[in-house]
Design goal:
The chain is α/β, with parallel strands linked by helices. It has two domains: 175 residues, Beta Polymerase, domain 2 (2-Layer Sandwich), CATH 3.30.460.10; 145 residues, no CATH class. Helix content is 54%, strand content 9%. The strands form two sheets. Strands 1, 2, 3, 4, 5 and 6 form a six-stranded mixed beta sheet that branches. Strands 7-8 form a two-stranded parallel ribbon. The termini are far apart. 26% of the residues are buried.
């Protein structure tokens, strides 16, 4: 990102605020307020759209338009000569991203989406200097741009200035604490307390950079796993990514069916690898190869009685229970309570129907038949 500077503004010590100036300000505010409220809604929608289209993750995007009281208080401190040009944050948009890389991407997106007033734009992280710790955030001053002027939904808005603040979650946490009057972290403090505060603020900076490094390493690890063949995966420890690769191999070999992205449960299924990795490790398995060893010839024969194809979670859990159902419930502590009829048929071939119902009952679970009715010994 190019170096960003901000022109110094007038202070209250340089200007006396007369009654006529305040009257001028209030008239200006009243004439602009309704349009700025519309601007806040329009700019928020545009920001969210551009972030989603570019695949930039973010925690949230919020907006506000200053109240008359808040705007007047700022005007008394600054006494802007040209309110349209200099009062740049009557409307403010805040983007909270996760990692520094998300912030960099969001900055590029803002520059592409809006016309940026470079003179009034600032990067607080660089303006602090290399030897200081404190509030870090990037503040863009923008307009919607002349290219939106002809569009009816932006009538009267395209030339209004607004501010876009972009910060990470941790930068936001620091800013909220520093500006909250009840904590008084932003005040002039005794040197020893200021030193402690600076140390903790520094930890947030280190954490920001550290999380970004770890995220990069996770992506690199995931890529390396995806490039490996199954033979190379056998010796890998069980985690979300190695398990995902194993599940993919089951899908390729038509052992299980893949989740359809249009399915309502697709998002839930994507998170299942983390849950399954925990259950597999709790069961005592350590590598992908040890999972494969549970896929025995006997299990494959027993699977022949199923009437519907399995998804990965169903097959992997059936593999564990077929190996040792008592160990599965004792070690894995699953959060499910209903066993479908296909799984019941498969496991009944090893444990017997009556015994399997008893095992399920002992562990707070039950089986259902093909009609969704709870099974008992009379149904066997």
């Amino acid at each position: 990102m190019d170096r960003i500077t901000r022109r110094p503004r007038a202070s209250a010590g340089n200007h006396a605020i007369g009654e006529s100036n305040m009257q001028r300000f209030h008239e200006w505010f009243e004439s602009k307020y309704a349009d700025h409220q519309r601007l806040a809604v329009a700019a928020t929608s545009l920001v969210q759209t551009v972030l989603r289209r570019k695949g930039i993750p973010y925690l949230n995007v919020t907006a506000r338009t200053k109240t008359a009281e808040s705007a007047a208080a700022k005007y008394k401190k600054t006494c802007y000569a040209n309110l349209d040009r200099e009062f740049t944050d009557l409307t403010g948009i805040r983007i909270i991203g996760y990692l520094p890389k998300d912030i960099r991407a969001a900055c590029e997106a803002i520059r592409e989406a809006f016309e940026v007033d470079e003179e009034n734009t600032s990067d607080r992280s660089t303006s602090l200097g290399v030897d200081r710790i404190g509030y870090r955030s990037i503040h863009f001053v923008c307009t919607l741009g002349t290219h939106r002027h002809p569009l009816p939904e932006y009538e009267g808005l395209s030339e209004l200035k607004f501010e876009v603040q972009i910060r990470t979650v941790l930068q936001h946490a620091w800013a909220e604490l520093a500006h909250d009057r009840s904590y008084k972290l932003g005040r002039a403090l005794p040197l020893e307390l200021q030193r402690k505060l600076n140390l903790y603020a520094g930890l947030l900076e280190i954490a920001d950079a550290g999380f970004e490094t770890v995220a990069h390493e996770i992506n690199a690890y995931r890529s390396s796993i995806e490039e490996r063949g199954m033979r190379q995966l056998h010796s890998r420890g069980i985690d979300e990514f190695s398990l995902g690769a194993y599940v993919n191999s089951l899908e390729i070999n038509h052992e299980v069916v893949a989740s359809d992205e249009s399915d309502d449960e697709f998002e839930v299924e994507k998170d299942m690898n983390t849950i399954l990795a925990y259950e597999l490790r709790a069961f005592g398995l350590r590598t992908v190869g040890e999972i494969e060893k549970l896929y025995t010839k006997q299990l494959k024969r027993d699977l022949a009685v199923r009437t519907k194809p399995y998804k990965a979670a169903g097959l992997l859990r059936t593999m564990l229970m077929h190996n040792d159902i008592h160990r599965y419930f004792r070690k894995c502590r699953p959060d499910w309570t209903i066993m479908d009829h296909d799984t019941f048929r498969i496991l009944s071939q090893k444990y017997g129907g009556a015994r399997l119902l008893d095992i399920l009952k002992q562990n707070g679970a039950f089986a259902i038949d093909d009609h969704g009715q709870v099974m008992d010994n009379d149904a066997l």
